[in-house]
Write a sequence for this structure.
């Protein structure tokens, strides 16, 4: 990737921050930098844990780690955004689930609730998979707004993995993504799907990624010429997002368990057809049936959206995004008045082709397909109307679509 002036400034700032945090290198150990992008999902939300399809893009908002390798198995990390630092020995890491922490020996390191748990969790996950990794001293910098639902945590995991691997062991993006997901689920304790990590690992400049969350296969999908992806952040950061997310996962699992009594062999909602759902709907509690209906219809919408993107069929994209938003709002019940307002404001602007909430919901961001000329009008409308109508602070990010995680050339 060609370096811009901003990249060069960021390299200099991070190298200086590394010296400030740990002192100048005693020997000639060089500074290395790795980056991992955030992501926004164009369509197909809550499909990963139902083994369905999703269509994310890796975005230019990203996380960098500048680091110097160490000869031992210790990792020290500082952040440009927090005074909290982290330090651990790779061999001493243990997941929260392994032992009773009341009886931990003093030399066992466990999640502490700090941002550095994502770094430690990644080291733990790679070590559990018997992949050779090395210690480092590093400084983290991110442009991903924290808590916005653009996968700052997945980006930190992916960048940490690359720093720990230190250019040694090369892992294919799906394997790297699965190890990063394991860090988040089993070490940090957040029950996420695989989409965030896979998008950050396997992104391709200018392309959307059609993910099959069962096989982890990806296909690159070209976006229509002249269409800009714009993320609108509602500024809403609900505390209860993860418990609501876990409830939705449990409701989907319940749908599978109940339907499997009539459809032996059914193991995920990915395999449920609209006809079978109609046939057996009555055996499901109403809310569980609604969740299943979202999954069945959203899965079809992802494939239809990939086809419409490749055919530059903007009317079809507009219709599919609108149906997806309505399904997440009415059937999956994960939208919010702020998200609905952001979508409504966007769709009133000529040149905004399509808009919907994206990610887990309950606040966070919307994703918009916008004719490049219409981006200033969208920004102005959000500035004028959104804050006044919601009492929140909205933000608009036109985002370039970038390659997945990798090293930054420093010279
Ligand atoms: C969060 C999770 C993802 C995915 C989305 C919803 O971002 O981390 O795995 O389930 O929500 O599409």
């Amino acid at each position: 990737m060609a370096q811009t002036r901003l990249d060069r400034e960021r390299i200099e700032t991070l190298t200086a921050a590394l010296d400030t945090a740990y002192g100048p290198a005693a020997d000639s150990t060089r500074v290395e930098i790795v980056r991992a992008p955030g992501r926004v999902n164009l369509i197909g939300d809550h499909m990963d844990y139902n083994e369905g399809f999703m269509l994310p893009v890796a975005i230019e908002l990203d996380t960098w780690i500048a680091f110097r390798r160490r000869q031992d198995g210790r990792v020290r990390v500082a952040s440009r955004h927090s005074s909290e630092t982290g330090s651990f020995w790779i061999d001493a890491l243990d997941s929260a689930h392994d032992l009773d922490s009341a009886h931990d020996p003093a030399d066992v390191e466990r999640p502490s609730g700090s941002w550095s748990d994502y770094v430690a969790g990644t080291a733990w996950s790679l070590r559990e998979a018997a992949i050779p990794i090395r210690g480092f001293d590093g400084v983290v910098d991110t442009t991903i707004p924290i808590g916005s639902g653009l996968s700052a945590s997945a980006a930190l995991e992916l960048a940490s993995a690359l720093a720990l691997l230190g250019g040694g062991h090369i892992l294919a993006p799906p394997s790297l993504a699965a190890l990063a997901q394991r860090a988040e689920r089993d070490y940090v304790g957040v029950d996420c799907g695989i989409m965030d990590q896979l998008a950050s690992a396997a992104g391709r400049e200018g392309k959307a990624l059609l993910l099959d969350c069962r096989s982890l296969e990806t296909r690159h999908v070209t976006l229509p010429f002249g269409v800009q992806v714009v993320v609108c952040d509602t500024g809403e950061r609900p505390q209860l997002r993860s418990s609501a997310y876990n409830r939705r996962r449990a409701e989907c699992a319940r749908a599978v368990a109940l339907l499997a009594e009539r459809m032996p062999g059914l193991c995920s909602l990915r395999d449920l057809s609209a006809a079978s759902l109609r046939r057996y709907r009555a055996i499901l509690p109403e809310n569980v049936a609604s969740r299943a209906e979202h999954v069945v219809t959203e899965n079809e919408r992802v494939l239809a959206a990939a086809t419409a993107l490749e055919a530059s069929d903007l009317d079809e994209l507009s219709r599919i995004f609108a149906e997806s938003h309505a399904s997440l709002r009415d059937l999956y019940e994960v939208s919010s008045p702020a998200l609905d307002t952001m979508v409504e404001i966007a769709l009133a602007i000529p040149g905004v082709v399509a808009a919907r909430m994206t990610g887990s919901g309950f606040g966070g961001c919307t994703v918009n397909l916008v004719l490049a000329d219409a981006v200033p009008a969208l920004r102005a409308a959000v500035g004028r109307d959104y804050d006044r109508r919601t009492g929140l602070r909205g933000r608009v990010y036109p985002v370039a679509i970038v390659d997945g995680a990798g090293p930054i050339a420093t010279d």
